[in-house]
Amino acid sequence: MPSLSLGFVFSTALRPPDNGRRSLLSRLASVGKKSSQGLGVGFSGGRVTTFLVHHGVDSGLHSANMRPETRRKVGGTIGPDAEFSEELLTAKVRPMQRRRTVAGIDQDELLEPSLLADPDSCFYEFNGVHIHHKICNAEDDQVGDLVDISVQGEASNSHSRDGRLGLPMILLHGFGASVFSWSRVMKPLASLVGSKILAFDRPAFGLTSRVHYPHKPSSTLVSSAHLNPYSMAFSVLVTLCFMNLLMADKAILLGHSAGCLVAVEAYFQAPERVAALILVAPAIVAPLVSSNPKKESSTERENVFNNRDSVTNGLNFYRFCAFLFEIYLQVKRAIIWMIKGLMNLISYAYKKLLSAILRSHLAIFLVRLIIDRFGVAAVRNAWYDANKATEHDVNGYTKPLRVKGWDKALLEFTIAMLVHTETEQKTAIKNRLSDITCPVLIITGDNDRLVPAWNAKRLSQAIPGSQLEVIKDCGHLPHEEQAEEFLSAVRTFLSRAFSIQSHDVNTAAA
Fold it and tell me: How far is it, in rounded angstroms, from Cα 472 to Cα 448?
């Protein structure tokens, strides 16, 4: 109930009767129920002075400054018959609305992404989505002193200024990040590879436009025009599309956290176009054990049953047992088929229910509450040393919260991640890691609290020939927290990987 502020100033010469005061207070209470403003009353010289008080501030309506006829409308002579103006008693004051904020960002003043763009921002339309990206060229005069970080002490290296790779690089950010997260290393990387560096915001993040995705699924998943813009397949197509934009046959893919999934999927989509993979704090679950022993054991067991005729030759009893066992296998297959059908039905109902829940108003409220309570803390927690996360860093990560529709887009991304359908028929990534043949570098921080370093070590064991680099005193963001060590690791990896390849090519040609 709105609060009511009262102020009384009584003259020492005249005090209102008790019954008059009770009548006056009852009327003031009725006014307080209808208004968020307060009504101040002053008694002086036998007259009542009324004035409005808004949050304790006098509105300036004093009887001393009013004409007699106006004063009679507002107040009257003290006594049992003291009356107030009907206009004053029935006036409805517009209540003050509390402004909504998430992580300090005013949610009542959200803008279109183009209005929040930086001077070097670019937008590329792909299937109705305006992809925000930035391009850094090695020949830009803006490279400046940061280039010295990447080429310092590399004058004799074959991949320095005079003999750089000439391969473009595409940067893929992680969950909740954006192009901003690469701002420390884009220019040094451009100088290192001697070509263009392109970083783009995946749909639902950064300044890429938030589009409304139809709730009904498309039956033609092959057509990119019908793909969910928040799905993994869409991000992979955008990555390959930017290779065409850079007019490159091959490119180096550098992913961070969840962006590593996009990089690996892009490799399996077009392995001939990926020159190398650099996975930073990869959010890819590494396989525990190889599945080959299980396959061998099942094969051996099938061979035993296939040769049962030779084993049970001349023994009718065992042939009868084999016949019963064959029936058992058929019944088992039928039961498994029915269970799979039931599980598919349950899975379909689960996906529909989960999608409906995540698209509800309650989900929007919860996602705003979670980001507001834990968003900034999560950003600082990504650093090993939280003091290195400056206000500039926090503002860079929270800037996308000013984009219209950011909350709904984030929920659509979550739905696409949990209820995806276009990759269900494909083999899981962790079972295909051994098929990667391009050079791979895995970088992790020794104190990563989000994706532990032991997962990166296990991942390097699953990818043949991969190189692992563990940066000390570093958290989940090596390219931000330890930029120099990160660039040094990339420089060493590219020098070794491509110098070996060029040597092999020369040997084969001879």
Answer: 10
